[in-house]
Amino acid sequence: MTEHASAPAVDQQVLQGALDGPEPLLATVFAQLAVELHDADGVEETVDAVVQFALQAEACTYAGVMLTTHGGWEIGAVTDPLVARIYQEQIDSGEGPLLAALTNGSTVYVADVATETRWPAWSRRLTSYGVGSVLHVPMWAAEQLVGVLSLYNDSADAFTADDEAIAYILARHASVAVASARDGETMTAAVDARKLVGQAMGILMERFDLDESRAFEILKRYSQDTNTKLRDVAQQLIDTRKLPQ
């Protein structure tokens, strides 16, 4: 069982060995993954593609991705409901290797779940679920931790150094794709918000014979007075033709 220091640091010889390994299928899998991630419509589709490819490229029985958010963490994707259960139990209890990986931004490998001593309650639960070994790899994008890729195997000592290197590559693919998808969703949301505000301003301008500046100031004032997001004030005005009370 190992825990590595924060930013991703995988032995370059091991990493290159994984890339140049004897299985040409691996290169094909990663090439296909790159295409899938490029074509994914958003964060949800992106992380779902990642965990499905993990089952092909790794010696794992289950896989999952936990994403970081402004308020904490959220389950991004899992290949089996058991992974979601394991995730949620760690969030509820406040301890476990997943939280260690999220908190420290470090790779955490538990080679033998049954003999793990750092998180005894977690160890007992996972042993009862039939999980033998666990690997959590952080997903970094531009010095920002965007999530953790988790791999689970029914057997102990299931993940080799090559497996860890492959997981690192997969996590790097995933982190860039997730960051890009989030940027796209943020940009789309911003465009949608501007459209809503523009529509609401148009309603005020027509009803009360206002110019653009005055209409925007009214929306802004209602947003501040009611502690409501500007786009939500605009949406309510569009839906009801009335401003919030």
Description:
The chain is of the alpha+beta class. The chain folds into 2 domains: 2-185, Beta-Lactamase (2-Layer Sandwich); 190-240, Winged helix-like DNA-binding domain superfamily/Winged helix DNA-binding domain (Arc Repressor Mutant, subunit A, Orthogonal Bundle). It is built from 9 helices and 6 strands. Strands 1-4-5-6-2-3 form a 6-stranded antiparallel beta sheet. Helix 3 (43-57) runs antiparallel to helix 7 (161-208). It starts with a strand and ends in a 5-residue tail after the last helix.
Task: Offer a few descriptive terms.
single chain; 245 residues; alpha+beta; Beta-Lactamase; 2 domains; 9 helices; elongated
What would a concise description of this structure say?
The chain is of the alpha+beta class and 245 residues long.
Topology record:
Elements: E1 2-3, H1 12-19, H2 24-39, H3 43-57, E2 62-69, E3 72-78, H4 81-93, H5 97-104, E4 108-110, H6 120-128, E5 133-141, E6 144-153, H7 161-208, H8 212-225, H9 230-240
Antiparallel strand pairs: 1-4, 2-3, 2-6, 4-5, 5-6
The number of distinct structural domains comes to 2
Task: Give the count of helical stretches.
Answer: 9
Fraction of residues in H or I helices: 55-70%
Main β-sheet, spatial strand arrangement: 1-4-5-6-2-3
Which of globular, elongated, flat, extended, rod-shaped describes the shape?
elongated
Low-confidence stretches: 1-19
| CATH class categorisation of the largest domain | Alpha Beta
Q: Can you identify the CATH superfamily of the largest domain?
A: GAF domain
